[in-house]
Amino acid sequence: MSQVAPQPLPARIDRAERTRQRILDAAGSCFAATGFSKTTVEEIAARAGVSKGIVYHHFDGKDGLLERVVERLCADWVEVSGLHTWITRTDSLEDAISGMLRASLAYARTHPLVKGLFTLDPLVTRALGSSESVRRVTEASRRHMVDEIRAGIERGELRSSLDPDRVTDVIRLIDMALIDHLLSRDWIDVSDDGFVDACLDILFNGIGGSQ
Questions:
Q1: Are the beta carbons of 61 and 41 closer than 8 angstroms?
Q2: 31-67: burial string, b at 16+ Cβ within 10 Å, e else
Q3: Cα-based distances in Å from 66 to 56, 97, 118, 211
Q4: pLDDT band at residue 2, thresholds of 50, 70 and 90?
Q5: DSSP labels for 71-97?
Q6: Domain boundaries, the chain
Q7: Class of domain 63-205
Q8: Confidence band, pLDDT 50/70/90 cuts, at residue 89
Q9: Minimal CA–CA distance to 143: which of 169, 178, 174, 161?
Q10: What is the DSSP letter of 192?
C-alpha cells in the first residue's frame, strides 16, 4: 500500500513560522551579546528585520521571548550532551556518562548564549527553572538517565545497592557545578581537563583506599 505524501504547510503558516524563528534567532543573538536586562524589544525587532508590533504579535514580549529562547537552548543542549546521545556511541555506561559530562561542559564553554545569559543575567535565567516548558525538556532528559542507570545496575555495570534516582541527581549536580564554575571561576577553575578527569575518577571509583 503506497503511503500518502505529507502535505506542505500553507504558505502563510510557513511564512509565519520562518518569521518566528528569525525573531528567536535575533533575540538569542541580542541576549548573548548584552544579556536579557539590557536588551530591548526594539533591538530584537531591528536585528530580525521586522517591526516591534510583529514581535509582540508572535511573542508575549521580552519575557516570552526569553522563555522560548531558553527552551530551545535547553533542547539543543540536551540533544548534544544528553545520555541518550552518548549511550549509542559506546558499550560502556561509564564511558557514556563521561562523554555526556564532557559534551555538556564543552557546550557551555563554546555557546555564546550560555555565557551571555548565565553570566550577565544569572538571576533571570535561574528563575526560568519554574518554566513549565523548560522543566519539561530537562525532566525528559532526567527520566531517560534514570532508566539507563537502572539498566546499568541490572547489567551489573553499577553496584546493585545504588538508587537510580539518586545516582542520576548526583551526576546532574556534578554537571551543574562544573558549568557554574566554568562560567564563574572565582573559586575553582574547571577549564583544565585534568580537573574534569579527577571528578570522573572520584565519581566512578570513589576515594576510599583498598580494603
A1: yes
A2: bbeebbeebebebbbebbebeeebbeebbeebeebbb
A3: 13, 30, 12, 52
A4: very low
A5: HHHHHHHHHHH-HHHHTTS-S-HHHHH
A6: 63-205
A7: mainly alpha
A8: confident
A9: 169
A10: S
